[in-house]
Amino acid sequence: MQQRVHFFWKFVVYSMLLIGVILFIFPFIYMILTSFLQGAYTLPRPHEVLSAKPSLDNYKEVWNNHNFARYFMNSMLVAGVAMFGSLFIGSLSAYAFARFEFPFKELLFRIFLFTLMIPLVLAIVPQFTVINSLGLVNTYLGLWLIYIGGGVVGTTFFLRGFFETIPKDLEESIIIDGGGNWRIYWNIYLPLSKPALGTMAIFAFSGTWDEYFVALSIIKEESLRTLPIGLMMFQGQYASNWSLVFAASLIAILPVIILYIIFQKKFVQGGQTDGALKG
Amino acid sequence: MKKQKQILLLLVSMLLIFVSVACSSKEEASSSTNGDNQVDGNGEVVERTVIDYWHTYGEQEERVLYNEIKPLFEEEFPQYELKLTRMPFEGLKQQVITAVAGSATPDLMRMDIVWTAEFAEMGALVDVSTLDGFEEVKEQLFEAPMSTNFYDGGYYGLPLNTNTKIAVYNEKLLNEAGFTEPPATMEELEEAARASVAAGSMGGIGILGLGQTWEWLPYFWSLGGTLTNDDFTQYEGYLNSEASVNALETILSWHEEGLVTPTILNGQPGFWEGIERDHYMMINDGPWYFSILGSDQARPDPLDYTVFGLIPEGPAGSISPIGGENISIFQSAKNKEGAWEFLKWMTSEEPQAIMAKGTGLIPTNMEAAQDAEFLQIPYVPYYVEQLQTALPRTPTPKWSEIEEHLSLNIEMVFRGEMDLREALDDAAAKADEYLSK
């Protein structure tokens, strides 16, 4: 009897999970199949999609024409540097907020957080004006300034909480050996925060990888444009060839998926400080 | 020892940052100096100033612009270099506003005709009617598209290309409905639509949606409806006049009878899919799809299954809205002189004819519109004729807001959530309120 009830609940749970998986994955499959079609100016009907034959023609066209490869490399550079920049500076400031005592610390932190609440659309004009007066319009430096500046806040907020869970006693081993704050940060906090850093890396990367509006405002030169702008070019004013749009989008999400696969192992790892201290 | 290591680490990371900075600025430098000066045939260096042009042409159009227009202009005006930047539509208006606020606009921009007044009001555009040779240019251009540049006593751009909508019929379904010729009047259209729907088609009168007035104005205007008085200063008494109410009531009765394509309330299939696959007897559209679908090998050529006609005549005649793009000079342009030079040249006969033949875009230059080769394109004469009676939507800086409010009301009417008369009264009052602001 007990066995049967057990089986029943298992069945319910698994079917719900399965339905969830199908729901989430279905649009994605639709997208992949549409990218095999030719000239889909209106979104294809289900029977057309299901009869699609795998072909890489659209992918080839996307990659070879329309400067797409160039945009891809541009985006790699932009998002890569922005990711490392915001992780590095963000973790440094998180360390300061977690471990140093200084006047107005909490107030400063709140102000820091407050900038997270400002919608991008409101901020873009003042941001652009600042970047413009610095003479950084049309440079990646200007873009990085905004991306890293924006990314640091989130990273700091996230990592501060994480850093505070790391036992202070661990630092003593370094202090005894004559090491300073840098060493504590570099040899204790960073290695122990790998799960948090991995998560933040994905957020930081995909956040800037997808970013369209700021990139378009700052970068005026076509050859410096990033991938999301390239993607938008496939959508015309009157008509969009959805098979090309989808093929381009699929190429565009590949790096994010790869990054996710690399870092996903770090997500669930916990207990790195277990047994580090004697109770 | 430890100290040294710390310093070393710091130095290395700083070095990394500097290297990346250097890389990026190098890239920028190399791309911006490209072609500023050109060595001519005699080996002499010609000083060239750049004209920065943001455009929104599609792919096929961009090819003509790049391969034919640009070389021709630079040959005629060797002192200028035309720098073309294609802008995506998504968030374009916000982009322009940002650029205007930061005084980082290009010299020129091609923009939708309904934007010109809005940016003129912001003080972002140059009044070209004060510039040299404006009168001669104006005389060569069609009056109606020209009027879309008018704002507060000045002209804030020149019309670059124009378009309107005509009626497009699925030939097979039209014949099945008992017509061998496209309907000439609204009554005939109604009759044909009724017969076609009875015979199993999904719609006989095409309305693509209610989100933009552009979609239903051909019927509304032709049936006698009006938006404003003649100088676009008042909606009250025009938008909600008896004639406007009657016109909209007729359209509503079509919808309730099931004669209108389901696209009116976002139904499927889309316009061109519907007409290609014998679902819709009639749609109305601009000229762009003919060249897009015609050049795509994977889809049947629309010319094989459609016939064209003017918007059927109602009590007020056959009236369709004017669409298209204007080209304007920004106040913060660095090269105003070159920009004006290009504007004058671009609206002259030759480049207009090249664009027309290469893309099917309808020229605003009267001479170019008579180009024999251009008129050979099967659908073109219909558009040119329709343009004779076409009307501009209200050229006012508040049009976007007015349209949004009006569209919302109209949609509520068609969804049965609002009384028709009340909707027009409210929209008229609101529109006048926007105008007086």
TrEMBL record, chain B:
Domain of life: Bacteria
Pfam name, any one: SBP_bac_8
Signal sequence coordinates: 1-22
PANTHER family documented for this protein: MALTOSE-BINDING PERIPLASMIC PROTEIN, MALTOSE_MALTODEXTRIN-BINDING PERIPLASMIC PROTEIN
GO cellular component, one term: ATP-binding cassette (ABC) transporter complex, substrate-binding subunit-containing
Keywords: Signal, Transport
Matches recorded under InterPro entries: SBP
Gene Ontology biological-process entries: maltodextrin transmembrane transport; maltose transport
GO-annotated molecular function: maltose binding
Protein name: ABC transporter substrate-binding protein
Protein family membership: Belongs to the bacterial solute-binding protein 1 family.
